[in-house]
């Protein structure tokens, strides 16, 4: 059983009417791979394991989305999974393998969602930046001094009605607003000024939080108005799972933030559980899951504790 049928019944009059809502009980989310800086045999691309753990802790399974595949393969995979995550990293948002695949899935997600087949997309850090590029068709990022700093979020008046934050417990929201528990590792940002001046971005995304490097205010969390598309310039997955940098927060509130962000994406109003895509058969599903690969401990010399190499 891949899905569960929930009967929502209304009995206002003697005529009771029931609407069947299908819920996906076995969500599978794609995580996009990206090029390594110096490729070696069997080590040409990677996914940081923290993104996989982030989704697994919320009850999803993960399929790696490899770069350099054919459009046909991506279409098939799109119709097999229930959402995709674009991780942080260090490749081009315009011309890398990562950028190519992100563009293909973004387009498929927009088309599918427009037909009522909701397909959620999540972008973290580089993934957030990629989303600003895909939506606007322009490189709108500006340099900021935000490479390795933990900040409290500045919530906008859009937070309360947002899908992303509306179910967050008050104590987690308070901690996010008052404690430096969102980790920023980026040299470029979407400034609030540029967001406000760009009609495509302004129409598409609601700004949920902002931050500043002391000089420049930038967008730190956004969600699309009409599509299940979400972006954080900060790293929700690092608090619970990454340890190699001294500025990664690990306080109880910081760790709870990791889980509530994952919980939102996999379980709440993000639409992952509304998506009913599935693999052709169990064999195809098994062959695709991340369990076919073993993460490597790289923490001694990398920004991550563990990486999956492909
Ligand atoms: C992807 O394709 C490019 C260009 O053909 C190649 O240089 C690169 O090594 C490939 N990477 C992977 C992970 O397949
Ligand atoms: C960048 O920010 C850090 C604090 O995060 C500060 O110590 C440093 O002086 C800033 N650098 C510049 C060039 O403003
Ligand atoms: C607050 O929300 C209103 C609409 O409800 C909007 O017009 C206004 O620009 C928002 N203010 C800020 C600071 O975001
Ligand atoms: C930002 O740029 C500095 C200097 O070029 C570099 O050392 C650092 O790794 C960069 N940070 C990120 C997150 O890319």
From TrEMBL:
User: Which residues participate directly in catalysis?
Assistant: 125, 235
- Catalytic reaction list: (6S)-5,6,7,8-tetrahydrofolyl-(gamma-L-Glu)(n) + (n-1) H2O = (6S)-5,6,7,8-tetrahydrofolate + (n-1) L-glutamate
Tell me, which GO biological process terms does this entry list?
Answer: tetrahydrofolylpolyglutamate metabolic process
* Superkingdom to which the source organism belongs: Eukaryota
Entry's transmembrane regions:
none
List the InterPro entries.
Class_I_gatase-like, Pept_C26_g-glut_hydrolase, Peptidase_C26
- Name used for this protein in its record: folate gamma-glutamyl hydrolase
Q: Which organism is it from?
A: Esox lucius
Ranked from the top, the taxonomy reads:
Eukaryota, Metazoa, Chordata, Craniata, Vertebrata
């Amino acid at each position: 059983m891949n899905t569960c049928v929930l009967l929502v019944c209304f009995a206002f009059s003697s005529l009771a009417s029931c609407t069947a809502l299908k819920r996906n009980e076995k969500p599978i989310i794609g995580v996009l791979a990206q090029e390594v800086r110096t490729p070696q045999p069997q080590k040409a691309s990677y996914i940081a394991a923290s993104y996989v753990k982030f989704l697994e802790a919320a009850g999803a399974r993960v399929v790696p989305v490899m770069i350099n595949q054919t459009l046909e393969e991506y279409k098939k995979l799109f119709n097999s999974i229930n959402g995709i995550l674009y991780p942080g990293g260090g490749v081009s948002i315009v011309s890398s393998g990562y950028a190519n695949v992100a563009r293909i899935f973004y387009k498929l997600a927009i088309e599918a969602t427009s037909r009522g087949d909701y397909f959620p997309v999540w972008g973290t850090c580089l993934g957030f930046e990629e989303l600003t590029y895909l939506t606007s068709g322009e490189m709108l990022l500006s340099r900021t001094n935000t490479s390795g700093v933990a900040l409290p979020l500045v919530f906008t008046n859009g937070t309360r009605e947002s899908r992303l934050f509306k179910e967050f417990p008050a104590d987690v929201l308070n901690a996010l607003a008052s404690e430096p528990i969102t980790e920023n590792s980026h040299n470029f940002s979407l400034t609030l000024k540029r967001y406000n001046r760009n009609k495509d971005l302004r129409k598409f995304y609601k700004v949920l939080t902002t931050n500043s490097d002391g000089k420049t205010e930038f967008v730190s969390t956004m969600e699309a108005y009409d599509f299940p598309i979400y972006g954080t310039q900060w790293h929700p997955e690092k608090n619970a799972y990454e340890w190699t940098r001294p500025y990664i927060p690990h306080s109880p509130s910081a760790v709870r933030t990791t889980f509530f962000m994952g919980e939102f994406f996999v379980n709440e109003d993000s639409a992952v559980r509304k998506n009913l895509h599935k693999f052709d058969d169990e064999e195809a599903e098994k062959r695709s899951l991340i369990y076919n690969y073993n993460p490597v401990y790289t923490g001694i010399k990398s920004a991550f504790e563990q990486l999956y190499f492909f």
